[in-house]
């Protein structure tokens, strides 16, 4: 019974993490068009910081903790599909780190990237998520 509750918590955390990871780069696309120091730019800074600190960061921590607990409990740590999944979740966590860096750059009015960069970056979590879900559901190897 505890396993099912942890799995539910894990799924909720993954959904929250992904929602934030998909929305934050989109905010950055719009932030690029705001004049540094403007009311609009300052509003984007608040939105980006709150999204990262209040949703994305806690959701990532819960995702990792619940996921590792389930992996240990179920003995998946020996499965090849799980090794591939962990590699992709590490990549997702790396992208999370990049988002954190970009939020700091925008907060300090140091963004040097065009909106197109963030439009392309917005696709990274989607591609990683697709591969992770296939590994978890299909377990192809």
Summary keywords:
single chain; mainly alpha; elongated
Q: Helix coverage percent of residues?
A: over 70%
Mean pLDDT: 97
The span between the termini is: 28 Å
Biggest sheet: strands, sense, closure?
none
What fraction of residues sit in β-strands? Answer: under 5%
Radius of gyration based on Cα positions: 17 Å
Order of helices and strands: HHHHH
Shape: elongated
Number of domains: 1
The tally of strands reads 0
The class by helix and strand makeup works out as mainly alpha
Output the number of helix runs: 5
Low-confidence stretches: none
Structural overview:
The chain is mainly α and 141 residues long. The chain has one domain. The chain has five helices and no strands. Helix 1 runs parallel beside helix 3 and helix 2 runs antiparallel to helix 3. The protein is elongated, with a radius of gyration of 17 Å. The mean pLDDT is 97.
């Amino acid at each position: 019974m505890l396993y099912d509750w942890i799995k539910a918590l894990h799924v909720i955390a993954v959904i929250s993490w992904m929602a934030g990871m998909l929305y934050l780069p989109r905010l950055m696309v719009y932030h690029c068009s705001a004049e540094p120091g403007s009311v609009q730019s300052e509003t984007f800074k608040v939105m980006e910081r709150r999204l990262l600190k209040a949703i994305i960061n806690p959701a990532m921590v819960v995702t990792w903790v619940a996921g590792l607990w389930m992996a240990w409990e179920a003995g998946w740590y020996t499965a090849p599909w799980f090794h591939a999944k962990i590699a992709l979740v590490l990549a997702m966590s790396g992208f999370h780190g990049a988002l954190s860096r970009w939020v700091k750059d925008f907060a300090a009015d140091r963004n040097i990237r065009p909106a197109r960069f963030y439009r392309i970056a917005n696709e990274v979590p989607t591609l990683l998520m697709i591969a992770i879900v296939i590994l978890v559901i299909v377990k192809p190897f």
